[in-house]
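new request in #modeling-help
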Amino acid sequence: MKIDAAIVGIGTSGFGRRLAESQLALAAQAFKSALADAGLERSDVDGLSIHLGWPLGPDYDRIAEAFGLEIRYVNQAWLHGRFVTSALQHAALAVSAGLAEVVACVTAVSFTRERGFLGGPGDVEGNREEGGTHGEAPPYGLTAPAGGAAVAMQRYMHLYGATSAQLAAVPIAMRNHARRNPHAIMRKPLTLAAHQDARMVVDPLRLFDCCLISDGAAVVLIARGARARDLRQKPVRVIGMQGTRSGRDEFIFAPRGLGINQQSARRSPDRQIDFEVFAQAGLEREDVQGFYTYDAFSPLVLFALERFGYCAAGEAATWVQGGRIELGGALPINTSGGLLSEAHVAGWNSICEMVRQLRGTAGASQIANAAVLQWGTAWGDSVILAA
Amino acid sequence: MLPTCDACGKAHLPPGPVCPFCFSGNITWEAASGRGHISTFTVVHKAWFPAFQDETPYNVVQVELDEGPRLTSRIIGADQQRLQIGQRVEVVFTDIDEELTLHGFRIVTA
């Protein structure tokens, strides 16, 4: 089956911290906004694909019931940010296969209300018998996704001599992007000194290496190409995809072979199978004009760059210096500010930004003549979008 | 003790019903050396758990056992500012209460 899917509408709620509205109310705002953007009615939506259900966000059945939808295709993944890509991919697959006409990817979160998830005694899942999904080991005091990113970065620094000051280039770039975005939560300048002076959270991650704990919603509407061409907006086509990698040589927050958990401790040569997204899209890595990634912690940006071959193993901390990942640089990353400075809507805020870029409506953040952008994560999945 | 495959001889963690390397179901718990090295570590500065509040900041390490698998654990009785990847360690067991015993490691000085 050939992928025949395009993003036809995007919508968001306001982003903030300790917002008064429920997650479902935020979802309603974003849903209405996406329908208006696409020029669709709610009766046109017959599929739902989501990954952040109860209690962090609303489940698919609650959304369908509350918004009065008639749904015939549902995908709801495990409650994790890591499934942002697969939620988008399932939507693209469903419309390509004719299982639905229009699939809404709905994400509405209140991390401020449900912050018990983010480490400590309330993180029930971190107590999974074989270890938490980010390497949590509560009896030994390791909790929260940040712990997994920290042990990976510590080893990365040891192997390659990378430093916290080099890592700072990531959150500083995200902040510089957020400063151009009136909807971003964090808009004050971030200096290297401020990054280095900020408190250590879980060594080597300092405060600004950790993403925002925020609230907000985003809705992305996907339809088949033929349908997309008849709608209000210029379609943003899904032209390449590759899925999540898993196995003993994978750790969610590390490149292959870094030696975390049960990974081998040998960085293996690049495998063609990890770059299939480019082949499927019919283009080369060099054609990508901007990169978008799940920047929950600054090291994840380095690991994603190495995953997709933008630089070799161990080079990313050097590679991101000198404005290379900022607007105007060779490969701008997360041009609306990402999870580190815009808001943590599980990456959907960045996917909405990709759509704006490819429509040419990104305003002060616009990448000139943006035609091909890549979404790709530290755990190896990816979607390439094109104008 | 480590779950060890009767067929290929490799030890694995976490414990599972089959050997992840050769898929044999014949697993025997074999005595382990209790020795290994620090493969990575962190120092946790945020008091996420009430039980750890008094000792925050505290270290958490991953230890690569000489048999191959890695364990998440803690280094006991060391200056955590001086932990280094590659340091040799050996296991110590601590009885938390009558039912719970946790492993930890101490630095082995040459």
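bot summary: Chain B touches chain A at residues 12-15, 20, 39-46, 48-50, 52, 57-58, 60, 62, 64, 69-70, 72-74, 85-86, 102 (CB under 8 Å).
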